[in-house]
Amino acid sequence: MLSDEYRYKILKELQSNPDLSQRELARRLGISLGKTNFCLKALIEKGLVKAGNFKRSDDKAKYLYLLTPKGIEDRALLTHQFLQRKLKEHEELALEIESLREEIANNMAESTQ
Q1: Which residue, of 1, 12, 38, 67, has the fewest CB within 10 Å?
Q2: Burial of 48 (0-12, 13-18, 19+ CB in 10 A)
């Protein structure tokens, strides 16, 4: 199954670099070429990405991956969800950091007594 995180990352990369090869996309995402191929096929089947051969390319195996209007809409929604999740994580980390600082301050106060 294609996770929201990978869907977001792939759509983001393809929107800014539609001529990326699958190998380069895999390298940028830190995933295998096979997983990249699987994810791209899933996005194409969902109608979020359209793949086509370069018309003027000497390498006829080279594809251009374009986000469909549905793909652009999905990316915007995923961006919003991703931002909300990261903001929540940030708030939780800030609370944890403050708690740790208080614990250190209390421990230092106790050790000087």
Answers
A1: 1
A2: buried
